[in-house]
Amino acid sequence: MIQVVVVDDQEMVRAGFRALLAAEPDLEVVGQAADGAEAVEIARRLAPDVILMDVRMPVLDGLAATRRILGEWTSGQAPRVIMLTTFDLDEYVYDALRAGASGFLLKHSPPGELAAAVRVVAAGDALLAPSITRRLVEDFARVQPVLPTTSGELTPRETEVLKLIARGHSNREIAAGLTLAEQTVKTHVSRILAKLNLRDRAQAVVHAYESGLVHPGPRR
What we know:
The chain is of the alpha/beta class. The protein folds into 2 domains: 2-127, Rossmann fold; 146-210, Orthogonal Bundle (Arc Repressor Mutant, subunit A). The protein has 10 helices and 5 strands; from the N terminus they run E-H-E-H-E-H-E-H-E-H-H-H-H-H-H. Strands 2-1-3-4-5 form a 5-stranded parallel beta sheet, with helices on both faces. It is globular. The model has no long low-confidence stretch (mean pLDDT 83). Residues 147-212 form the HTH luxR-type domain. It comes from Kribbella amoyensis.
């Protein structure tokens, strides 16, 4: 069972998400919170696999709560955080990706996407498939200063894979484009994350843009 905590300041939203997840045989909602401060306490007490975290809440917003939660755990043990937002371009969500959240989901997404998103991040991947995620990162990367890069630690092939990750390509697409086995691509991705001390693909995308390795532009 994948254990989930739902965090949102609207009771009806929490109830709706709880009902949708409860209908799935492999998902269990073990707790819920109405603000970020409650979320931090519940995460400490229950250690869930995944946290659905609203962005804008009273007492402590979702961004601050995410930073606190992920800052208290080692990367291999920390809950995965999915940010919930009403807006497709939200600076708080971009900052949350930088803080270590595994991606974000729009509240008006189709019901089936919620359970799928929980499974994706619980498996250790990131919610980067929707084109909106890449657009969010690109839009805010345009106004962020380029940071000193540590991508020089990567091999030329790993650098090539990182660029394709940042462009929103899946492992299967990368494998096809570079004529590699998909398992080989997975190995490259694991090494990239380890060398750059990144939590997952979401942070890899942010790193690629902020380091200047990739620049905003059309997907290639």
